[in-house]
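Blinded run. Sample ID left blank on purpose so nobody reads anything into the name before looking at the predicted structure. Input follows.
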Amino acid sequence: MKYLITGGCGFIGSNLAKHVLELNEDLIILDNLSRHGSDKNFEWLKGLGKFKLINSDITNSQKVDDLIKTEKPDVIFHLAGQVAMTTSIIDPRRDFEINALGTINVLEAVRKHCSDVPIFYSSSNKVYGDLEYLTYEEHDLRYTVKEFPRGFDESLKLNFQSPYGCSKGTADQYLLDYHKIYGLNTVVFRHSSMYGGNQHPTFDQGWISWFCKKGIEIKKGILKEKFTISGTGKQVRDLLYSKDVVSLYFSALNNIELIKGHVFNIGGGYENSLSILELFKLLENQLNVDFSPHIKFIEARQSDQLSFVANNKKITEMTNWTPMTIAEKGIIKTLQWLQ
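Blinded prediction complete.
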């Protein structure tokens, strides 16, 4: 089989690419290598096997069309995207071009040249907005949601907020609509937080690895200045380890006839949920450090969610996929990778 991974040198894309190479399948990566750390992931992948890199931008419709017309892949993992809410607020036009128009470029090329190829899209929980209409209880270390104590399912109403939420939501809906109107084999994953090896975090994206990195800097005594926490630090997300993300995409591929045209909330589930403060406690125990002198609290980010935990019931029932890596073990592996 021939796999095309857009954004294949990014965090999740490179983990999927590694698995494709391990299967000895044909691999094509479309990536402009602009994302922080993507060049390092590219060099790492080159040591694992042979593949073709198309160093181009997803917004170049002619390049995308030529690539899909020429290669006619058997599977597409569509992960290319602008991934940070803060960046989308600074440059909303670029955010829209990458996430929304870039996705249209892929869909149109597939519709014209290989309409039977499965397309799996990495969407976001941000398509649900800030969820401010729900009832929250504030505890010592986390928020809880009265209406959804064990996590959110796909019945949650869409509410695009922030340029990032709008662009990801637009792409999300186009994938579902191209199944309805044109019969394309599309699947949408609305991801919560993901973490693991090959994630090169920045202050505005990849929060789990970012704070793991800060913990290591505290441990080594090389942290130069305090780092910021937006809001109270009690915001909650469920954590999905990279190995489980890879198993998700391939479990979905094996069940494409059953799940095409569907959307799924995807995460580590309630059992693997952590607030920022709870993550600090875990890291303090693992690294034998104290975070409190190094933290500066600032105003909450615009359109941030106080809590988002995915209910995986639908994807589990339809594919038998479920996360296998508990958060504490995944954090330990992430610390080892970062070190």
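Unblinding after everyone has recorded impressions. The radius of gyration is 19 Å.
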